[in-house]
Amino acid sequence: MNRSSRSWRTPARHLLAAIAALASFVVVIPVGALLLTLWAVSAAARGLARLTTPRTTGWKELVEYAPEVGWKPRPGLDCHAEDLAGDPFHVVTDEEGYRGAHGLSHSEVVVFGDSFAFGYAADDEDLFLRHAGGARVTALAAPGYSMVQPVLWMERLGARLSGKLVVWMVYLGNDLYDSLRPSTDGYRSPAVRLGEDGTGPAIVTAHVREGKIGFPRDRGVDAYVEICSGGLLSSRVFAAAEYLIERGWDACRAAGADLVIVSIPELSAAPRAILERKLALDDGAERFDEGLLDRTLAAICERAGVGFVPLFEHMGPEHYLQVDWHWNRAGHRRVGRVLGDLHALWLDGRLSTGPGGAADLPSEPPPSSDARTSAAAREP
Amino acid sequence: MIRLPDPPTRALVRGTWLILSLGAALIASVIFLAAGAPAWSLWGAGVLAILLVAGRARPRLRRSAYGAWRRVCGGLGRRAGVILERTAFAIVAVVGWAGGDMKRRPEPVDSGWRPRSTLQAGAYTSSGPAPEPDSSTGWLRSLLAWGRRSGHGWVWALVPVLALQRLIRPSARRALDGRNYTLY
Fold first, then answer.
1. Complex confidence, ipTM
2. Rounded distance, CA A367 to CA B163, Å?
3. By the CB < 8 Å criterion, does B62 face chain A?
4. How many domains does chain A have?
5. Same-domain status, A14 and A79
6. What pLDDT, in 10s, does the model give residues A284-295?
7. Which domain holds residue A11?
8. Identity of the residue in B10, B90, B182 whose CB atom sits nearest the CB atom of A20
């Protein structure tokens, strides 16, 4: 390009641009006024939300490494954490890292389990522990626990469980499968080795150290469908579950505690929607039977002589949050009521934990005829 | 920026309801003022109180209002975006009447290829163009500096349009991968 053409082109461009910009104001001013109004409302709402949201603590500060079990909630917490939807919830733990106002020593009921038992996404004052009809309850649970950590805790606590009712909550969504995996989201976790080579099943903890491990991510809904379809994975997870329940019951019996298994159904809208999509695309959908989980666990508990309460008979999708998949306030109240009923039966000596003893609670079927289907229909 | 995230947090739903209620109360006050009502501000306060009580009693109402506001912002934002984009193109087209610097057809003797000698090994890491400043913070400075440097000062004319277009940008979607949380 020669210098002379550029010399006139630049001012010409500037002039044309100025004219075009002035002309464009006819459009830009009304559009801008509209957009600025919308922006002001949205920005004010965001600002207000920021002002009214308490400062949250990241999970790295809420849990700490613990040998063998992998991790546990930090003791002495009194802070807000963020649930999967970004909403804060108030977490309080005692000097041992447990949730509940009474401490392990003064509690009559001790709940073991994963994030549901921990009360993930629930404010401390809304926890099921607070709605258990006057029973003194403590939860020894942490997000991400499988069925293995509760057994290790039962064995570790031993005599401290003496004379108590142990309620072991098993989330059917992933606890069964996670018990076979030596890693949870890359973090080393204890797992069951089934010992099909004749060595017999055992809990493996030798690999548990602080820090991450390169291990394939879990298969989520694929594994859930496979387990519910009764294949090889299904038989493996139930073999592990049977071994763990027997071992947990041995620990409780040795400590002089009673044990009840409570299964937590997968009824939250978000995972149900993913599951429904998977089943719609899957050729093996006709083999899928979610009732298999509760039926098999009930049979295992019957053989072991442990009480069993399927929460599916007491809860519906309305007890679960919409985005986060844990219980909402109503869900915690309902679980608290079930726990209160169990406690009352136990006090009366009517909680049968001998052979064939399922906990005889009045069931409260969810309002819809098929709670699992209606959960998916409630996708946000 | 104008569009609020989905799914929202509870605090954001509450905040949106409060702001929309304030807006409705303001509009009600103006209407009563225009109608000559003596206690126009009380009418506005009454509307605000009713909406706040309704939102408190029916949380689902707040969520519906949030969803409706998101849809309004989304719909209007999309239309405004199209208008602004066409306006920006129109400005560029008008500037283009003065001709452009782009070579439409390569001249046989004027190849774009230039002989380069070998550089020191360490130089290859920085032989490319320097990275532009972060677009989320310095886009205006970056654009104007480029215009000044390259003799395209006319890009100033695009600034109001581009600034408004940034308001329509979708906000970062919250990652909800349906997996576990960080443990420790």
1. 0.75
2. 52
3. no
4. 2
5. no
6. 688 899 999 999
7. 1-52
8. B90
